[in-house]
Amino acid sequence: MFSRRLALLVGLVSLLAVSAPAFAVSITLEVDGTETGHALRRFNLNGTSTPDASGEVLQWQMTDGQGVVSDGNTWGSMNTGVILTGVESLLKEDPFVTNTVGLINPLPFAQTFTITVTLPITAFAYNATINSSIGVTVTDANGNATVSGSSVSPTGIYSGLVNGVTILTLMPHSTSVSCAASGCSTTASDNTALPQLPAGPGVATSIGITLKVRLSAFDQVGITSRFEIINVPEPTPLMLLGVGLVGLAIAGRRKRQQ
């Protein structure tokens, strides 16, 4: 009886281990004020992960000692050179990733902020990107009637990564999202990768998104982004034959009608 119960318990634990994704995601932040003679700071961000109802998609959220980082529970200060109002990522080994971040530049000079999400995956053959995009909203947080979030040469604001190498750039250099009124806010997006673009081909063992933006002093930016790769099947000889036969049938029908 004991052996049977032990076997049942081991089986249940194994089932849970298989059904619950355990992604070794890495999320890093770099704050660069060196253009104005200030420090370069790097942070590895910590968070918690929760699977969705399917168990296949994981929602990662940055947390601190008080809970999830948000507008009401910010992380950072003038000492860190950044105030984060939220960092979130959706992850799936199918594979896709999202990278959503909100931050404030608390210092009296422009800084460059780089946040990277990296997801190791099981080897995945790909030849295209799909449903990949970015949206950027900048806000004049200090009311001085100017705000700007811009790309930094030579990269764009968005880099879709496979095995650490950029295969998709959105909002390429030189992109600038800005407005010039007290307390103003404006949004720009780049959907040129929708619905899909050819890429590679290759075999991915990791995917990710790097967001890199230079933000004006005392201002705020929010960025949403998504990156996904797929393997589009090559047309088979049978499929090509079928397409050809359909074309011949349509051509024949038109000729008879004439």
List the helices and strands and how they pair.
Blueprint: H1 2-19, E1 26-32, E2 40-44, E3 47-51, E4 58-64, E5 67-68, E6 75-77, E7 82-92, E8 96-98, E9 100-104, E10 111-130, E11 133-139, E12 147-150, E13 158-162, E14 165-170, E15 176-179, E16 185-190, E17 196-215, E18 220-230, H2 237-257
Antiparallel strand pairs: 1-2, 1-10, 3-4, 4-5, 4-7, 6-7, 7-8, 7-9, 8-18, 9-18, 10-17, 10-18, 11-16, 11-18, 12-15, 12-17, 13-14, 13-17
Classify the secondary structure makeup into a structural class: alpha+beta
Q: List the helices and strands in order.
A: HEEEEEEEEEEEEEEEEEEH
Biggest sheet overview: 18 strands, antiparallel
Portion in strands: over 45%
Shape: globular
Q: Which residues sit in consecutive blocks of at least 5 with pLDDT less than 50? A: 5-20
Distance between the termini: 83 Å
Radius of gyration (Å): 24 Å
Task: State mean pLDDT (0 to 100 scale).
Answer: 88
Number of domains: 1
**How many helices does DSSP assign?**
2
**How many β-strand stretches?**
18
Share of helical residues: 10-25%
Task: Please explain how this structure is put together.
The protein has one domain. The protein has helices at 2-19, 237-257, and strands at residues 26-32, 40-44, 47-51, 58-64, 67-68, 75-77, 82-92, 96-98, 100-104, 111-130, 133-139, 147-150, 158-162, 165-170, 176-179, 185-190, 196-215, 220-230. It is an alpha+beta fold. It has an 18-stranded antiparallel β-sheet that branches. The protein contains two helices and 18 strands. The radius of gyration is 24 Å and the shape is globular. The longest helix has 21 residues, at 237-257. The model is unreliable at 5-20 (pLDDT under 50). Helices cover 15% and strands 51% of the residues. A hairpin with a 7-residue loop joins β1 and β2.
